[in-house]
Design goal:
Length: 318
């Protein structure tokens, strides 16, 4: 998504450069200047940026102007984002109701506001919902099953993992001997995540020639109920896993990712500068701040101004 705004900025920069070197007619130049002012006003970057001479940008109260007419767009690819850069970053403002504009060490970066909030929500949801079940048994806070109530984009959300009894037992068909063995080996973990499985004799299950396993309860994550099929998938995960640490069912992770996405700030949502700053602050505390819940980048370098020399500010008018 950052590519879209990057293309807008690059096209805007090319048009501005052509105007400066006289490749456009006077009437078109005046139209472009008006368009440029509208773009800047529309971006609302920090609410403080004004148009400066030589097509540069200046900040009220600090009138140093950066002359970027010779900037090479390929410079943006020469800077690698790091945690150190992120820790020093501060918000300039919001652009086009889509992106957070941040700067540190003279590098200007665009942040996808939806991806940023999605990452923040994902890690918060994982902490509140999953952490109690991944902690050592003596430290598990079972009371956390009741969940916490939070306000999301679509109203109040209950961050929880609860159990949902099925209206009628569901037989697990097609379960192999190896999966049955895996189930017995991980019986406690399976029940910990909210699945409840019972073994019934052949007389209790029609068309069964031996004892069968039936699912009588499944987990429900933030109001979304899992299915017995999700248990089969989890058994396969357990069977194939070489890790000794507790596993989270992929079905539960998918629901949390979906909820993190659907409840996040969207493109087109106007954000005041203090909310932009709060998002950046929360992102700095994330374990994986550079990718969203789906693995896509949350940000992209736009301008590397480390080699750009400042020019003198014009005298104040009047």
């Amino acid at each position: 998504a950052c590519q879209d705004l990057l293309a807008e900025f690059e096209e805007f920069s090319r048009k501005r450069s052509r105007r400066e070197v006289g490749h456009e007619g006077a009437s078109r130049s005046r139209q472009g200047q008006r368009s440029k002012r509208q773009d800047i006003e529309k971006a609302g970057i920090g609410g403080e940026l004004v148009e400066g001479s030589s097509s540069s940008l200046a900040r009220r109260g600090n009138v140093e102007i950066l002359n970027i007419q010779h900037w090479n767009a390929s410079a943006k690819t020469q800077f690698a984002l790091t945690r150190e850069w992120l820790s020093n970053a501060s918000i300039i403002g919001q652009a086009f109701n889509k992106f957070l504009v941040a700067v540190a060490d003279n590098v200007l970066v665009l942040m996808d506001q939806h991806a940023v909030h999605e990452r923040i929500r994902l890690e918060a949801l994982e902490h509140e919902i999953l952490s109690p079940f991944l902690a050592p048994p003596q430290k598990r806070a079972r009371s956390r099953r009741s969940g916490l109530k939070r306000t999301g984009r679509h109203g109040e959300e209950e961050w929880n993992l609860q159990t949902s009894p099925l209206p009628a037992p569901v037989r697990l068909d097609g379960i192999t001997k190896s999966l049955r063995t895996s189930m017995k080996a991980h019986w406690e973990m399976i029940h910990q995540w909210g699945f409840k499985v019972e073994e019934v004799e052949k007389d209790s299950v029609p068309s069964s020639s031996s004892s069968s396993l039936v699912v009588v309860q499944v987990p429900s994550v933030m109001g979304v109920q899992l299915s017995p099929t999700d248990l089969l998938d989890f058994l396969q995960e357990l069977h194939e896993s070489l890790s000794s640490t507790p596993l989270v069912p992929q079905a539960i992770r998918r629901i949390i990712v979906s909820k993190a996405c659907r409840g996040a700030i969207m493109f087109g949502d106007p954000l005041p500068r203090d909310q932009c700053s709060q998002l950046l602050s929360q992102l700095k505390d994330c374990s994986f701040p550079f990718q969203c819940a789906h693995g896509r980048p949350t940000m992209m370098p736009l301008l590397d101004l480390r080699g750009v020399a400042p020019c003198s500010a014009p005298p104040p008018a009047g």
